[in-house]
Amino acid sequence: MNTSIETRYASSPQEAKTWDTAQSREALLITPLFIEDRVKLVYSHYDRFITGGIMPVKQSVKLETVDPLKASYFLERRELGIINTGGAGTVSVDGEVFEIGFKEALYVGKGKQEVIFSSKNSAEPARFYLNSTPAHMSYPTRRITRAEADVVTLGAQETSNHRTINKLLVNSVLPTCQLQMGMTELKSGNTWNTMPAHTHDRRMEVYFYFEVPQGQSVCHFWGQPQETRHIWMQNNEAVISPPWSIHSGAGTSNYTFIWGMAGENLDYGDMDHCAIPDLR
User: Fold this and answer.
1) Cα–Cα distance between 133 and 125 in angstroms, integer?
2) Taking residues 111-117, what's their average pLDDT?
3) Where, by residue number, does Zn(2+) bind (predicted)?
């Protein structure tokens, strides 16, 4: 089996206050994500959210079930979101092949039994970033291009947060059970994402940072609004955000990140804002 999986347990704000840097990274940081011809998965007890990465190079890679799911196949009781952050690739879903280009997405509904990932060119392999959540019903598999995304531009150059939000796998674009995914691109010269910060106690979130230039980093902020912490992130790394935590970042350069959410509410605007001067 070419799959590795880690389990991350849920924690309370009181417990998290006691963590040092190493403990914070061990609990929340996901790295490495892309290993040649392997499936890397992290199973979080926050909303049973799975984060993963697949980079086919020398061969196609099949998404197989793992022991924590107690399922005969991976999507027996789950839905799956995929965004390609590398070279051109394909995803075969029960024999139907979808071409997935750079920054394009694919939604795969519950009940699909065989999902196979391939790269078009081994010299420029695809890097398929995955999010998966439990699902109560099956929705159609569908590829979403950037042209089909629900696009919003927010922020300003003056506040260093001018950015474009591409809502790819959200309920304004296609039906899902609970998974929501999108991609935020910061304009050149801008560093801040998700600022002003917010929390949403009804759902958790995972951020995946990429297009971070060589030698640069992103400082990801987490924790309760009055008890914030930070984790330094490198290119192609992900971080888990508990429902009670803010999720915001500032880079030493502009960058791109993918956000994935799961929980009881599909309303994108369902959030509790935190005023910038009130953060501690």
Assistant:
1) 26
2) 98
3) 198, 200, 205, 247
Answer left, alpha or beta for residue 182, where phi above 0 means left and psi between -120 and 50 means alpha: beta
Task: Give percent above pLDDT 70 in the chain.
Answer: 100
Strand order across the beta sheet in which 128-134 lies: 3-8, 39-44, 50-54, 128-134, 78-84, 105-108, 142-144
Compute the distance between CA of residue 151 and CA of residue 165 in angstroms, rounded to an integer: 6
Q: Does the annotation flag 200 for ligand binding? A: yes
| Dist. CA 47–CA 257, nearest whole Å | 21
The answer on whether 148 is annotated among ligand-binding residues is no
205 is in an annotated binding site: yes
User: How many domains would you assign to the chain?
Assistant: 1
Residue 93: CATH number of its domain: 2.60.120.10
Ramachandran sector of residue 256 (left: φ over 0; alpha: ψ -120 to 50; beta: rest): beta
Determine if residue 213 is left, alpha or beta; phi over 0 gives left, psi from -120 to 50 gives alpha, anything else beta: beta
* pLDDT score of 134: 98
Residue 118 pLDDT greater than 80, yes or no: yes
Beta bridge partners of 62: 116
Band of the pLDDT at 266, cuts 50, 70, 90?
Answer: confident
What is the distance between the alpha carbons of residues 252 and 213, in angstroms, rounded to a whole number?
9
**Which residues constitute the domain of residue 97?**
3-278
Contact present, 205 and 197 (Cβ < 8 Å):
no
3-class SS at 156?
A: coil
- For the cut 80, the answer to whether the pLDDT of residue 95 exceeds it is yes
Report the alpha-carbon distance of residue 179 to residue 266 in Å, rounded.
8
- 10 Å Cβ neighbour count for 29? 18
Q: How is residue 125 written in tokens?
A: 């392999």
